[in-house]
Amino acid sequence: MTNPLSFEAFMEAYQDMVYTIAVRLLGGEAEAEDIAQEVFLKAYEHYNGLSQSPRAGGWLRTVTRNLCLNYLARYRSRWRFFSEMTSEDEDEDYTARLPVAEPAAGVEFDRWRFLEEAIQKLPASQRVPLVLYHFEEMQYEEIAGRLGVSLSKIKTDIHRGREALYRRLRNREDWPDGR
What we know:
The protein is an all-alpha fold. The protein is 67% helix and 0% strand. Helix 2 packs across helix 4 and helix 7 crosses helix 9. The longest helix is centred in the N-terminal third of the chain and has 20 residues.
């Protein structure tokens, strides 16, 4: 039997994953940090069971996603208001604020960063369903139920999010070669 990780080592092993999920769903660093802190408080409460579990990562992923969705549901009106506002400085470099995440297998790091940047600039109504579908691997029906909207709205929002991502990435002059 192996010795369990200390809680600090456990937290360090999963902090990037938790933060990345939160920032993708919430679109803001401060909110993502708050959610990550709450996730690790819950993990601390359940640490005896998690410390040696091979499913600890999945548990943390689920808790993070659920806390983010609860946050979005709780603050929906404020969320809509702020998601519709645009930055006064459209040339601002958002890449420095993105979390460090590992690119998917076979994806160049520069391309991964451009994709992350483009996702963060999507309106929340497109970003959240798109992230839940593509990154969290939730089904359309599950997303619709969790967000309390119709299935057709989810399909439309994901389609529009994909189209917006395509336009953003296609129009980038500094997009790495080799589409």
